[in-house]
Design brief:
The chain has 462 residues and is α/β, with parallel strands linked by helices.
Length: 462
């Protein structure tokens, strides 16, 4: 996303975009919108002031399935920011076997490099398509072959043997034939024709050295330069060959130094790290004994969140201006159970609301990617048309809400399970169905009422 496009993203506009995907949670949306707008404002400051303006990290508190992760992910997607989600429980204190917290930064740099590379490959797609065309034509009409009594081997070559040049007539004939095939290729006549291509063999086994990935050392890059690339012949249709060759030829046109430089800049100034399950590493009063996934992990995270330099395989990355969003349900713990230094790194705190029956109904109807819209599109590919009527949607919402109240509150995820169960039969029989389906209250009850009424069945199935 360009600087001009970012400037258009006012907090109100950001919230409006998030409203297209997430129902409710206005406080959280406003908090992330302001945090993102402050990053845009920071870029307008003079250098002397800019270096002192650090992101105000956010702590989200709320039950599972209410949209914490989705808000952060959609925010990153909206602004074109590198984004990575990690679970705090996967890390262990330094000195124990387990993931090092610095791997978070290496992951987001990998994401950014792939993001920038994809953008740059789109910019050179025209040139790359021409190169793909040339390779396909070369396979269809090979260049002129040596004729006559040229050197048969390397020894004759050193003794002065020379390859006779092809005749002018042969060169013209091949040139005309290539142009003929080029016209046919561009018109789509050759898409189903089989050709032989020489491609790099990427099936060689990877050499894994324990611990090296956490040190930011790219052993594949170090050892890969010592081993020559192997080529293998592959037979593909022309249409398939285009798809295989396009990324290969596009990557050849990229300046990877520029790609890496831009990716690191994007991480340092626009990166978003979402740390989930943060409540699981809080040290609750009354607990005894060491726990390598709790207080020690918090202390290891402190320098990364506050600002440090991490070594990656692409170079050093500063974390001072990365936006960190931590989230947790905080059922068994509370934010004050986190160590004081860690609490201070998250000055903005927002509480997300549990979803009620009305929210479930809105989730089924309002978002652009609502699960009902997904199912309608999926089954339409089989020629089956589904119509969700209002009383059917309300029944789906009601059943999901009651199950959350009785069993375990897993938020909107319960809604997806219920809809999946209701549409299970039609999804299975869709290829043979020749009729449209109306999902109303009676249909929902017929498919799920008995299961929803039985606590034991509900606990296992829904």
């Amino acid at each position: 996303m360009t600087r001009e496009e970012l400037d258009l993203l006012t907090p109100r506009k950001i919230v409006e975009e998030l409203d297209k995907y997430i129902v409710g949670q206005d406080r959280a949306k406003r908090a992330v919108a302001v945090a993102m707008r402050n990053r845009i404002r920071r870029q307008r400051l003079a250098e002397e002031m800019r270096k002192d303006v650090i992101p105000k990290n956010i702590l989200m508190m709320g039950p599972t399935g209410v949209g914490k992760t989705e808000i952060a992910r959609r925010l990153a997607e909206l602004t074109g920011s590198p984004f990575v989600k990690v679970e705090a429980t996967r890390f262990t204190e330094v000195g124990y076997v387990g993931k090092n917290v610095e791997s978070i930064i290496r992951e987001i740099v990998d994401v950014a490099v792939n993001m920038v590379k994809k953008e740059k490959m789109g910019e050179v797609e025209g040139k790359a398509s021409f190169q793909v065309e040339e390779r396909i034509i070369e396979s269809l009409v090979p260049g002129p072959q040596p004729r006559g009594n040229g050197p048969k081997n390397i020894f004759e070559l050193f003794q002065g043997g020379q390859q006779p040049k092809p005749s002018q007539e042969e060169v013209e004939r091949i040139k005309n034939r290539r142009e003929e095939y080029r016209d046919r290729l561009r018109s789509g006549d050759l898409e189903d024709l089989d050709i032989d291509l020489e491609l790099e063999d990427n099936s060689q086994p990877m050499i894994m050295i324990p611990g090296m990935e956490d040190m930011g050392i790219d052993m594949s890059g170090v050892l890969g330069g010592m081993v020559p690339k192997k080529l293998k012949k592959k037979r593909l249709r022309v249409g398939e060959a285009r798809k295989v060759l396009l990324p290969i030829e596009s990557e050849k046109l990229l300046d990877m130094d520029k790609v890496i430089f831009e990716a690191i800049e994007r991480v340092q100034n626009r990166g978003i790290v979402f740390i989930d399950e943060i409540d699981k590493i809080s040290f609750r009063s009354g607990s005894h004994g060491p726990d390598v996934s709790r207080e020690g992990v918090q202390r290891d995270l402190l320098p990364i969140i506050e600002g440090t330099t991490v070594n990656t395989k692409y170079g050093q990355v500063k974390t001072d201006y990365i936006l960190f969003i931590a989230a947790g349900a905080f059922h068994m713990a509370k934010p004050s159970d986190l160590i004081p230094e860690f609490q201070g790194r998250f000055p903005i705190r927002v509480e997300l609301d549990a979803l009620n029956e009305e929210d479930f109904f809105r989730i089924l109807t309002e978002p652009k990617n609502a699960i009902t819209k997904q199912y309608m599109a999926l089954l339409e590919t089989e020629g089956v048309s589904i119509v969700f009527v209002e009383d059917g949607l309300k029944e789906l919402a009601s059943v999901s809400y009651r199950l959350n109240e009785r069993i375990e509150n897993i938020g909107a995820r319960r809604l997806y399970t219920v809809v999946e169960k209701v549409l299970e039969e039609v999804s299975f029989n869709a290829p043979e169905l020749a009729e449209d389906l109306v999902v109303d209250r009676d249909y929902v009850n017929k498919k799920i009422a008995d299961i929803a009424a039985d606590d034991d069945l509900s606990a296992f199935i829904l």
